[in-house]
Amino acid sequence: MGANIAQVKRQALPDGTEPMDSTHQAMIASLRSIRDQADLVLKQIEQPQEQQSMRWAGKACRYMKNFTRPVTLEAAGRCPRCKCTEFKPVL
After folding, report:
1. 6-17: average pLDDT
2. What whole-number distance in Å separates Cα of residue 63 and Cα of residue 85?
3. Does residue 65 sit within a domain?
4. Which of 41, 44, 48, 82 has the fewest beta carbons under 10 Å from its own?
5. Do the domain assignments include residue 20?
6. How many domains are contained in the chain?
7. Domain, as residue range, for 73
8. Nearest to 60 by CA among 84, 78, 77
9. Would you give the end-to-end CA distance of the chain in angstroms?
């Protein structure tokens, strides 16, 4: 009797498709979720990042402005000597 039930479950449906287990559907849903999360992370990585540096040199007077952590050009602000906002990162 048990073998007969298993054979009936394995038979294809009239439209040519086979039924899926709920475990297969759950696995497919999990893999799709992982794929979507990976795609999102890759898109975020591909976005251009603002350049950050711990040291910025003024273009006009070459004053070195130092920070304790990397900051963006906007955070560097103005040069204390010449009040210019043009800096270049010192790597």
Report:
1. 56
2. 12
3. yes
4. 48
5. no
6. 1
7. 52-89
8. 84
9. 76
